[in-house]
Each structure stands twice: as structure tokens, then as C-alpha cells.
């Protein structure tokens, strides 16, 4: 399974290059952001081969990139970033976004210090587990008809806020204000509606979670102060995506776009990289369906945040505003976006940026950020594993080489079947208890498959992106309460 | 012997599945998928069986396999069932018609959510019957 035969040139301590001469058909080099240590894990699976495959995409600009949390995915590697130029025949690939369209993360602050909630932690986690449906096939308390789902697909988080479950402030603190423009509900199949109608406000399963965390280290006092974050503070992180609706949109378009390869004379090394020119009818149709699914995911996380606020209100008998439960930010990490970027020749062009397990990280002053982030840049949320830590970073100007993209998490190093052989549920639970983490999960299998040891150390991953100048560290959070599917 | 084995994949789940005929291969791939997703509790005598007629069309046999499995996933999620018996009425490289029987998910301990069946490294090979490798997104 190893891919060590792929040539890797080290450019500096955190950058490696796969020359475009390595394989016929590569249009650009591969670029890996990693450290010596993390590279050992990367060489164990087929992720590098996937970086090479992505370099074949028509119209790709710069490099086929991968972040330090990279690992073997399907089509793109997880941690993959690729931008294509629509004016140069650039393509869009549903496999460069994935089935869980706009899987992403949301981070919410509170006014509490850990000691103020510690004696209610069990009750809080139980209430969150009760208020936020999780697990395979979980159904929401919010049942929507087809017309309401259509509105969600266009308005995203705004629909949820208009229904009374949030504020305008929440929208300012969400990527694309919680609704990507250009979504077309007509481009979404009836089957996708069927799968999505009971799923706004559900967490799902696998690596998705809701965590109560404590800020335990501050790296950038100024930015932390600006975001009203402080050491010892309780916060909440939510990780989930577009659920069955997104899976169905991806599945539908993998087939229709798969049939485009002959039509547009495109050759790709992996059928899961099927793609169509961004400017083609098929490309535009996928983009508008994908945006609709992305908006569904923003709405999903907005409603889960509402249920989180309600859970805190029930346990602490105060309203959420008094508890200071403001949204810090919400990011998408499985998405393709049309964004303006400067090319090597200095010209600015609209590019189609695929981020498959990678996070947008816009710098201070970026026109797409809300006024309150103009001075500090975009918050970037990096969830780690349920036993160790997660991070909040901030976008910086020097990330222009990655089209302002950064890592998205810790990254798995171990398959689920190996995890089941190496860990048992009793030991994983005992380990979490020794770290002071309270957990509620629907499935014992999930607890084992999500054990800390199956992930890279998020601290090492975050250090690479910080050292490589792709973002700046703001603070670290450690989990104290975990809700999983 | 199980008609399939798990392949080590870092984040997702892969299987290598066999069948004496292409039909058997398609059947075994579906059995493998639901075996990964759910483990049955002892079935009560009155467990209701739901029946479906499934028609799938495709351009070639690999696409047919993916569409077949994704169709079963769609029905499993929206009808809240796990499929137990599958029988083909018609079968070719570009289309199939099947009768499928499913039992409510509440009679199963759900293990893993399979989001979709991917085209990544999908291969159907003829050797002593048929063999396929399939990667599921989980």
C-alpha cells in the first residue's frame, strides 16, 4: 500500500514537492505541507498517489496541494486543495468536494469558566445528547416540507435565523454569511429532498461530534481578546455536514458528470475524479446543486447551535445571551468555491478552489469577510480528537500560495478495522475519564473507531501550518464533554 | 467463509468481494455492505418484512454495481430498513431488476453510517468467478 516510490523534493522544513515530470499527464507539481515526523504516516497510504492524480485535472493552477492532516480518501486525498481556472478549461469535480458537502465546524464561546460548570457537566452532556439528535439515521425534531427545504437550500442559516433560531450576529460569523449565492433548488433531486427533510438539526455519526471544551492555552492575546476568548473559558464545538441530502447530491452528480468525460475529452486517472468544465452546463448545474447542499449544512449547524443554547438554558436556568453564547465562527471544509485569487503573473482571476478536508483561511482585509473580521482575519477552526485538543487559528496574508487554505483537523492514521483490533471500548472510556472527559455516544463502535490514537496529534499538524505561514495560532481547547453518534 | 473481506483504508471502509457469477457478486456486495452497517439483534417472531422492486440502469457493469448499492443505501436510509434477502429477476451488464426484502432498522444494532459507494479504485475482475473491490465513504 506504500507510495514511497513517488519522488519527493524537500523545499524547506515544511514543504515538499512532487515534480510534474514524475508522471505523464500531470499538469502541475504536487505540493505537500508536512514535517519529517508526519511524513512517515503520509507514506503509509495512497494519499501521495492521489495528490498526483489531482495534478491531472484540466485547468489546474499552481500546484495540487495537500495539508499536513492529509490521508488517503477517494478521488482527492483528504487535506487536498486544488484551484482551476474556468477561463482555461478549468474543471469542477464532485470528488473534490466529497459526499458530505460542506462538512464543517462551528465554534461558540460562553462566559463560563470551567470551575463554574464542572459540577453540572454530566447533566449538561446528557442534556446536549438529548437535545441534539445523533447517530445513524437520526431524525430531527424539526420536520420540513419540500417547500421549506427549498428555502433552506437557498437561504441556508438565514432561514433558520428567520424562523427564530438565532441572530444576525450568527450570520456575520459564518463563512459566506451562512448562504452561498447561486444555489439552485431545482438542481437538487427529489431523492435528495427525501433524504434531507428530517435531517436539519442532526449531528450524524462517525467523526461528527459536539464537544464542550475549555480554552487552555492562548497563543495570540490580541486576537483572543478581540474574539472575547480567555484562558479557562468554556466553549462548544460542533462538527457535522449536509447529511443524506449532501450525499445524494454528490452521488447524483458523480454519475451525470462521469458521463461528461467523453463529451469534453477529459482523461482522469481515477473515475472518482470525474469532472466537467466549470463553465459547461453540467459544471454549472453541479455548482448550483452543491451550493444548495452547502447551505443545507450551514442551516444544520445553525439549528444544532440553537439546540445547544437551549440545552445550556435548561441546565443553568439563564438565557443564552446572558451566558455569552456568541458564535465565534463557522467554516466549511468540504467545498468548492469560485473565489478571486492572484495568479503567479500578478493578475487576479476567479478560480474554482476545491477544498477536500481543508479550510478557507482569509487574511485581514479580505473583502469577503464581515466588517468585524477585517482587522484580525478569518477565524479557522481545527477540530482534533476527542481526548486531546482542538485549535482556533486565524488567516494570514502569507497563505496566498495555498489560495488561503489551511488544514481541517488532525487527520486519521489508522483504519477503523485496525482501531477495532487495537482498542476496546472499556479502555477508551477509562482513558477519557482519566483526562476528565465525559462522553455520551449512540454507538460503542463509534467510541472505539474514534479513539484518540487513530488520529495524528493535532498539535503537530497545527504547528506545520503555523510554521509554513498558512495561518496563525490563537488558542488551544481541550475537550471536557463529548457527544457522538 | 464470508464472501468478502475488509481492505485496510485509512478513513473509509473497503471490501474485496467475490461471487461465482456476476449476479452473485452483486448480491454478496450488498450483503457485505449491510453486514458492515448493522448487526442484527435476535429477531422477534413478528418482525415485519418490507418488500421492494428495484430497477437500476447503467452504462457499464462497474457503474451498475455502484448504482445498485447506492439505490439500496437510499432505500435503507429513507425507509429505515436493513435489507436481508435480494433476488434478481433480470440481470445484464447495463441493467437489473431485483426483489428486495428488508427489516426495520430497530431490530439491528447500527454500527457504521455508509454515506455512499465510491468509484475510487473500483474494479470488477473475472478470476474463478468474479471479484470486485469497493470503497465506501463512511
Name the overall outline of chain A: globular
Helical residue percent band of chain A: 25-40%
Number of individual domains of chain B: 1
User: What is the oligomer described by this structure?
Assistant: heterodimer
- Pair with the biggest interface: A-B, 47 and 33 residues
* Number of DSSP helical runs of chain A: 16
Distance between the termini of chain B: 25 Å
Rg of chain B, nearest Å: 14 Å
- The CATH class of chain B, by name, is Alpha Beta
Largest sheet of chain A: 8 strands, mixed
Uncertain segments of chain A of ≥5 residues (pLDDT<50)? none
Radius of gyration over C-alpha positions of chain A, nearest whole angstrom: 21 Å
Per CATH, what is the topology of chain B?
Answer: Archease, Possible Chaperone, Chain: A, domain 1
Q: How many distinct domains of chain A?
A: 1
Number of strands of chain B: 10
Helix content of chain B: 25-40%
Q: Roughly what fraction of the amino acids of chain A lie in strands?
A: 15-25%
CATH architecture of chain B: 3-Layer(bab) Sandwich
Structure class of chain B: alpha+beta
Using the 3D structure, state the CATH architecture of chain A: Alpha-Beta Complex
What does this structure look like?
The complex is a heterodimer of chains A (485) and B (138). Chain A is an alpha+beta fold and 485 residues long. Chain A contains 16 helices and 19 strands. Helix content of chain A is 32%, strand content 24%. In chain A, a hairpin with a 2-residue loop joins strand 1 and strand 2. Chain A is globular and about 60 Å long. The model of chain A has no long low-confidence stretch (mean pLDDT 96). Chain B has 138 residues and is of the alpha+beta class. Chain B has one domain: 3-Layer(bab) Sandwich (Archease, Possible Chaperone, Chain: A, domain 1), CATH 3.55.10. In chain B, strands 1, 2, 8, 9 and 10 form a five-stranded antiparallel sheet that branches. The mean pLDDT of chain B is 93. The chains are: A alpha+beta (485), B alpha+beta (138). At the A-B interface, helix 8, helix 10 and helix 13 of A face helix 2 of B.
Amino acid at each position: 500500500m506504500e507510495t514511497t516510490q513517488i519522488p519527493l523534493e524537500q523545499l524547506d522544513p515544511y514543504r515538499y514537492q512532487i515534480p510534474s515530470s514524475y508522471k505523464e499527464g500531470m499538469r502541475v507539481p504536487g505540493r505537500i505541507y508536512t514535517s519529517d515526523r508526519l511524513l512517515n504516516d503520509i507514506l503509509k497510504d495512497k494519499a501521495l498517489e492521489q495528490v498526483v492524480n489531482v495534478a491531472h485535472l484540466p485547468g489546474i493552477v499552481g500546484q495540487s496541494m495537500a495539508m499536513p492532516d492529509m490521508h488517503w480518501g477517494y478521488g482527492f486525498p483528504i487535506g487536498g486543495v486544488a484551484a482551476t481556472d474556468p477561463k482555461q478549461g478549468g474543471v469542477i469535480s464532485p470528488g473534490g468536494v466529497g459526499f458530505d458537502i460542506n462538512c464543517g465546524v462551528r465554534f461558540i464561546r460562553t462566559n463560563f469558566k470551567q470551575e463554574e460548570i464542572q459540577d453540572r457537566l454530566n447533566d449538561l452532556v446528557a442534556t446536549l445528547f438529548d437535545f441534539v439528535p445523533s447517530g445513524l439515521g437520526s431524525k430531527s425534531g424539526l420536520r420540513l416540507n419540500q417547500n421549506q427545504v427549498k428555502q433552506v437550500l437557498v437561504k441556508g442559516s438565514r432561514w433558520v435565523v428567520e424562523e427564530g433560531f438565532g441572530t444576525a450576529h450568527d450570520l456575520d460569523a459564518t463563512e459566506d454569511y451562512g448562504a452561498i449565492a447561486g444555489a439552485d433548488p431545482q438542481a437538487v433531486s427529489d431523492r435528495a429532498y427525501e433524504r434531507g427533510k428530517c435531517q436539519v438539526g442532526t449531528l450524524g455519526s462517525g467523526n461528527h461530534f459536539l464537544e464542550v471544551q475549555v480554552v487552555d492555552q492562548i497563543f495570540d492575546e490580541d486576537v483572543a481578546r478581540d474574539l472575547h476568548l480567555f484562558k479557562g473559558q468554556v466553549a462548544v464545538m460542533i462538527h457535522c455536514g449536509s447529511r443524506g441530502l449532501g450525499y445524494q447530491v454528490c452521488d447524483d452528480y458523480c454519475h451525470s458528470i462521469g458521463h461528461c468525460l467523453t463529451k469534453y475529452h477529459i482523461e482522469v486517472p481515477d473515475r472518482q475524479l470525474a469532472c466537467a468544465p466549470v463553465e459547461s452546463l453540467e459544471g454549472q448545474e453541479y455548482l448550483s446543486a452543491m451550493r444548495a447542499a452547502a447551505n443545507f449544512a450551514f442551516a444544520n449547524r445553525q439549528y444544532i447551535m440553537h439546540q445547544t443554547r437551549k440545552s445550556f438554558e435548561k441546565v443553568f436556568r439563564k438565557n443564552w445571551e446572558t451566558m455569552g453564547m456568541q458564535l465565534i465562527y463557522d467554516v466549511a471544509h468540504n467545498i468548492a468555491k469560485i473565489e478571486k485569487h492572484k495568479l503567479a503573473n500578478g493578475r487576479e482571476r476567479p478560480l474554482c478552489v476545491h477544498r477536500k478536508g481543508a479550510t478557507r483561511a482569509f487574511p485581514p482585509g479580505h473583502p469577503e469577510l464581515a466588517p468585524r473580521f477585517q482587522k484580525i482575519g478569518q477565524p479557522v477552526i481545527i477540530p482534533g480528537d476527542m481526548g486531546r485538543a482542538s485549535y482556533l487559528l486565524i488567516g494570514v496574508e502569507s497563505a496566498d500560495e495555498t489560495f488561503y487554505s489551511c488544514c481541517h483537523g488532525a487527520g486519521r492514521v489508522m483504519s477503523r478495522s485496525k482501531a477495532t483490533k487495537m482498542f476496546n471500548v472499556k479502555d477508551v472510556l477509562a482513558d477519557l475519564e482519566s483526562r476528565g472527559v465525559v462522553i455520551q455516544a449512540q454507538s460503542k463502535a463509534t467510541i472505539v473507531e474514534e479513539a484518540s490514537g487513530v488520529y495524528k496529534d493535532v498539535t503537530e499538524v497545527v504547528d506545520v501550518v503555523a510554521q509554513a505561514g498558512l495561518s496563525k495560532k490563537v488558542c488551544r481547547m481541550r475537550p471536557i464533554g463529548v457527544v457522538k453518534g | 467463509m464470508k464472501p468478502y473481506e475488509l481492505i485496510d483504508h485509512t478513513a473509509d471502509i473497503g471490501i474485496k468481494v467475490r461471487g461465482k457469477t456476476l449476479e452473485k457478486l452483486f448480491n454478496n456486495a450488498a450483503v457485505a455492505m449491510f453486514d458492515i452497517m448493522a448487526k442484527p439483534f435476535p429477531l422477534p417472531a413478528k418482525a415485519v418484512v418490507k418488500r421492494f422492486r428495484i430497477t437500476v440502469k447503467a452504462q457499464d457493469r462497474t457503474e451498475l454495481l455502484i448504482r445498485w448499492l447506492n439505490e439500496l443505501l437510499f432505500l435503507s436510509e429513507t425507509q429505515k430498513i436493513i435489507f436481508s434477502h435480494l433476488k434478481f429477476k433480470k440481470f445484464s451488464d447495463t441493467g437489473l431488476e431485483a426483489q428486495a426484502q428488508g427489516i426495520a432498522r430497530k431490530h439491528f444494532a447500527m454500527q457504521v453510517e455508509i454515506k455512499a459507494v465510491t468509484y475510487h479504485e473500483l474494479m470488477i475482475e473475472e478470476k474463478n468467478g468474479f471479484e470486485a473491490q469497493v470503497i465506501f465513504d463512511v
